[in-house]
Specification:
79% of the residues lie in helices and 0% in strands. It contains 19 helices and no strands. Helix 1 runs parallel beside helix 5, helix 1 runs antiparallel to helix 7 and helix 14 packs antiparallel against helix 15.
């Protein structure tokens, strides 16, 4: 059941990726139907991250009140409706509204889907399971690029947008068959339902008593500490908040979406000729991103989060600098070096910076503020995503590709330092253990290195 749950919840990621990528490939045909001013064009593109920002803000409260599954069902319905409306609009303002609605659904789902998977997954495969969400994002991007390649032509944007309704409907149907998160049920005092849900997740015959007891003990400890549910701003929760928001800042300022949204432009700067070559190179970026994410899923629960992030940041920093130099010295460096470096950059991102922020934001927050904490982290994701995508054309026009990539490289070097100094290792540590560690006021980066703190109902490492 957990595999089915992860697969269904990950459809939200597919929609996330599809709607990110589709605008890049739909744009020329869209301009043909509705000639837009740069401002209208910019807003139509940015409507999704903007709607998602609002969705991310609402998601925490909604999911804490209504549960994980019900909120995802609402988002799935919005996805399907938004995609159909976006495909049939007769004016630009209607398209903007439809994309805002789509963004809203994406923003809500981007918080709740990884949360739902993390809360349902057994400890030993939690990293791999939550990373199916990132894999689905990368699959969505590839699908949108391929759709663009296959459907290239006038007025095809309507079909591209309409296709987004299909995963939306599949998502809704899949959710009907899933159990609610046992952790949310315990939080609401529904322990019997939580046990039933855990039985469905772990399979017939599995003994779930200890796991449910550990969750119950954890909820009680939370209430004892704060005498009421803790606030997201409580000092002991702050380290988690820093991890969640800074990881997404680093992820976005590594320049990933400059590459995802503007790959053809970048290849043009690299001296690659021909539209098809550029699009093929773009699909190459999409496929490397997807394939290396699969590799990451196998490594996350084995190698751990910290080593992977350090490797990833070193890889992105070095490749960005190579591209910056090669672009300036085009007489010395052939353009294939830029293509290879860009693909290695994507691989370094996908092995670590791609999946890990989504995974770690679902791990580090205490249960009763997990929704709120993930909302705030997700706002950091969408806010910085928006800023980079919006400013990148301006950066190209002012400091050029080399300048922009050097800035991104500096951020990645900062990422190495941040990971070494502050990032906890959450591999093999249960969500309840992470929370007990935080509540005890222990520095988060000591997690996974110090002797464990006792958690009622469960044995520590
Ligand atoms: C990021 C997206 C990005 C994608 C690329 C995700 O983890 O949040 O902004 O486009 O990775 O694979």
């Amino acid at each position: 059941m957990i595999y089915f749950l992860a697969a269904v919840a990950a459809i939200a990621g597919l929609l996330f990726g599809y709607d990110e990528g589709v605008i890049a490939v739909a744009s020329p045909s869209l301009q043909h139907t509705f000639p837009m001013s740069p401002l209208e064009d910019g807003f139509t593109t940015a409507a999704v991250p903007l709607g998602a920002l609002v969705g991310a803000i609402l998601a925490g409260k909604l999911t804490q009140a209504l549960g994980r599954r019900r909120v995802l069902m609402m988002a799935a319905a919005l996805f399907a409706v938004g995609a159909v409306v976006a495909a049939i609009v007769g004016a630009v303002w209607m398209l903007m509204v439809a994309r805002l609605v789509l963004g809203l659904a994406i923003g809500v789902a981007a918080v709740v889907a990884p949360l739902f998977i993390a809360e349902a997954a057994p400890l030993s495969i939690r990293g791999a399971m939550v990373s199916t969400y990132q894999l689905a994002i990368t699959a969505g991007i590839v699908l949108s690029y391929l759709t663009g390649l296959l459907l290239g032509g006038e007025d095809t944007w309507r079909i591209m947008f309409a296709l987004g309704a299909i995963p939306g409907i599949v998502f809704l149907i899949g959710l009907v068959f899933l159990p609610e998160s046992p952790r949310w049920l315990v939080l609401k005092g529904r322990d019997a339902d939580a046990t039933a849900s855990m039985h469905r997740l772990r399979g017939p015959g599995a003994d779930v008593t200890a796991e449910v007891a550990a969750i119950r003990a954890n909820v009680e400890a939370e209430h004892r500490t704060a005498e009421r549910a803790p606030s997201i701003l409580a000092p002991w929760v702050r380290p988690a908040l820093i991890i969640g928001t800074v990881l997404f800042f680093l992820q976005q300022l590594s320049g990933i979406n400059a590459v995802i949204y503007y790959a053809p432009t970048i290849f043009q700067h690299a001296g690659l000729d021909g539209h098809t070559t550029q699009v093929m190179a773009t699909v190459g970026v999409g496929i490397v991103n997807f394939a290396v994410t699969i590799l990451a899923m196998g490594l996350i629960d084995r190698l751990g989060r910290r080593p992977l992030l350090i490797i990833g940041f070193i890889g992105t920093a070095v490749t960005l600098l190579v591209i910056a130099v090669a672009v300036v010295e085009q007489d010395i460096f052939p353009s294939w070096i830029i293509v290879v470096a860009l693909l290695l950059y994507i691989a370094s991102f996908a092995i670590s910076l791609g999946p890990l922020p989504h995974l770690m934001m679902s791990e580090v927050f205490p249960l009763s503020v997990r929704g709120a904490g993930m909302s705030i982290s997700s706002c950091s994701n969408w806010g910085f995503n928006f800023i980079v995508v919006f400013l990148f054309p301006l950066m190209l026009a002012t400091i050029g590709l080399a300048g922009a990539f050097t800035l991104f490289a500096i951020v990645c070097i900062g990422g190495i330092l941040f990971t070494m100094a502050l990032l906890p290792e959450t591999r093999g540590v249960s969500l309840e253990q992470i929370e007990a560690h935080l509540r005890a006021g222990e520095p988060l980066n000591a997690l996974g290195t110090r002797p464990a703190i006792a958690v009622a109902g469960g044995t520590r490492r």
